Structure formats: structure tokens, C-alpha cells
Amino acid sequence: MSPIPAQIVLQWALEIERNGEALYRAVAAQAEDREVKTLFHDLAYQEERHYRTFQRMLAKASEPTSDPLAADYRAFLEHALSGALTGEGKGMQRAKESHTEEEALRAAMAFEKDTLLFFYEVADVVEPDHLPAVRAIIDEERDHLRQLSRVLQDGPWVS
Fold first, then answer.
1. How large is the average pLDDT for residues 89-116?
2. 25 is in which domain, residue-wise?
3. Nearest CA to 115 among 29, 67, 46?
4. CATH number of the domain that 41 lies in?
5. Which of 92, 113, 119 is nearest to 29 (CA)?
6. Counted domains in the chain
7. For the CA atoms of the chain, what is the radius of gyration?
8. Rounded CA gap, 142 and 148, in Å?
9. Is 72 a domain residue?
10. 25 found inside a domain
11. Is the per-residue pLDDT at 88 higher than 50?
12. 44 or 115, higher pLDDT
């Protein structure tokens, strides 16, 4: 079990899902290729669903217990996440940095990889009855990565 309280990890999960939704909505609005636009709209909707799932988990999470390792572990995760997943407008920042559909797809893939790593941590701290939902979200995030990879590989913009 992770020494970080489930409430903190779930709050981060909410922020990550909100950032992912913002990223996908922004790049969908800019995409010209119909398949890319459809994919990004679908991914935004899925991130919105994940957000609601984590909200329900957070409402039911047990009170945190004190653990002397928690401060160090929390600092580690905060540092790791701040550059990749969390922070005000992180999804929008990634979208703005993408000037082509290929860049948007690659940014989305990087986001999904970082998200997968984080959700493996989430699986270690949630209540046991929430574990199946987290595992399902991990599977969906992995599927997002596959979808993005397929579109990137098949797209006409790849030379």
C-alpha cells in the first residue's frame, strides 16, 4: 500500500482527467482530418467519464492515516507529475504546443503514457472495492494509447 493517502492521489487523478479532457477538446477543435477529430472527441468524452468515476471514489475514500514515508513519497509523486500531468492548464499547454496533427497525436500519446504510470500508483491506494474501476480505467487508457498509435501510424501526414 502506498504511503500517500487515497484522497490526495484521487485529487491528482481528477486533475489529470480534467487536463486530458482539455487537451483532447482543444486538439479536436484544431484537427482537420476527420478520423483524428473523431478520435480526439471520443477521448475527451472518455476522460470526462473517468473524472466522474474518480469523483465517486473520492467521495467514498477512507480517512488518511499518518505515515512517516508519506511526505517523501508525496514529494516524489508531485515532482514527477508536475512536469507531465498536473498543473493548471497542462492539457491546454500541450495542445498549444502542437502545431500539426502529428504533434498533437504524439503529445496525446505522451500524456497517455504518463497517465498509465500514474494510475498504476492509484491502483495501490484506492479502496479494494474501487480497484476494479481503476483497472478498467487503466485498460481504457491503454486502449487510448493504442488508438492514438494506430491513427498516427496510418495517417496521411506521416512521411
1. 78
2. 6-63+78-154
3. 46
4. 1.20.1260.10
5. 92
6. 1
7. 16
8. 10
9. no
10. yes
11. yes
12. 44
